[in-house]
Amino acid sequence: MRISQLFGKGKCVFSFEVFPPKKNMPADTIYNTLDSLKDLNPAFISVTYGAGGTNGDNITCDIASHIQDKMGLVSAAHLTCVSNTKADIDAILDDFKAKGIENILALRGDINPERPPKHDFEYASDLIAYIKERGDFHISAACYPECHLDSPDIITDIKHLKEKQDAGAEHMMSQLFFDNSHFYSFLEKARIAGITVPIEAGIMPVTNKRSIERMVSMCGASLPSKFTRIMAKYENNPEALRDAGIAYAIDQIVDLAASGVDGIHLYTMNNAYVAEKISAAVSGLM
Ligand code: FAD
Q1: Which of 59, 99, 119, 247 could form a disulfide linkage to 20, CB 3.0–4.6 angstroms apart?
Q2: Containing domain of residue 260, as a range?
Q3: Model pTM?
Q4: Number of structural domains, the chain?
């Protein structure tokens, strides 16, 4: 099923994101996680593509096709273009097609100094237009409630976001944020700019202090004082920090669902326990 068909039914779509195991980890770990996530019945599960193409073989495709074929759920495969040539992308798209992948989150990817850009595609909009030409896939794009780090300002960023819709993106998923007011303000600007496709809000529960700090420094999300107080109080108590992180994410989701957002995209961090707790608390609200 194409992801945009999930929207417009008077419900808030609730979807998950997982990432492939690191190269030195057994492949089974992700399949065990997916077994637990299946019972939570997400609208779809998206699978990330190794940053800079580091695990850019077919593992993303294999996991996305497992979600569809073995679990009976809708999946989306992420795909970045910065380190790929057109020939690389053609081969990946052929693989996606052969394995029945319908939904792609088309991204530029972060510029990795160890893997110089290939320049066949400068921006995600170039990749979106290229995929669209083939006509085989439903395309999603990424958006940034607090502005993408490379962008001079949010208005310029939203102008480029609109180019992704114009190139063929039919759905958007947002970068994580910890203050819903940023998302609401972004949404208002995006709608004024003529972005009409469904936009899901990206929510990442805090599960441990180090991973959140790394993530935040990479994506530039701001930390409200309510959030930093939690990190400061529970930083030496992993269980309490995890529970407070779950409660914080639930609080964000309740507010977003009550405000009528199109959907919530939960960055599960492959942590089925956290996804279960959050789903149990919010599934009746969607
Ligand atoms: P783009 O849309 O190309 O934007 C990148 C920058 O270029 C922005 O600042 C934009 O304003 C600017 N820009 C766009 N078009 C133009 C133009 N014509 N002229 C000038 N400037 C322009 N990374 C991974 O490696 N793997 C993943 O699986 C992955 N999944 C993600 C999932 C989500 C939901 C999100 C939000 C991000 C994800 N990322 C992933 C990170 C993403 O690759 C980075 O944020 C990357 O830096 C930007 O990708 P993009 O597709 O948004 O790029």
Answers
A1: 59
A2: 11-281
A3: 0.97
A4: 1
Q: How far is the CA of 254 from the centre of ligand 1 (A)?
A: 28
**Counting runs of H as helices and runs of E as strands, what totals does the chain give?**
10, 8
Any domain includes 2: no
pLDDT tens, 11-60?
Answer: 999 999 999 998 888 888 999 999 999 999 999 999 999 864 445 568 99
- Please work out whether the CB of residue 203 comes within 6 Å of at least one atom of ligand 1: no
CATH code: domain of residue 28:
3.20.20.220
Name the nearest CA neighbour of 205 among 259, 270, 256: 270
Residues 6+ apart with CB under 8 A from 42: 14, 15, 16, 73, 266, 279
C-beta 165 within 6 A of ligand 1: no
Characterize 225-238 residue by residue with b for buried, 16 or more Cβ atoms within 10 angstroms of its Cβ, and e for exposed.
eebeebbeebeeee
Would residue 6 count as lying in a domain? no
The residues that bridge with 7 in the sheet, in sequence order, are: none
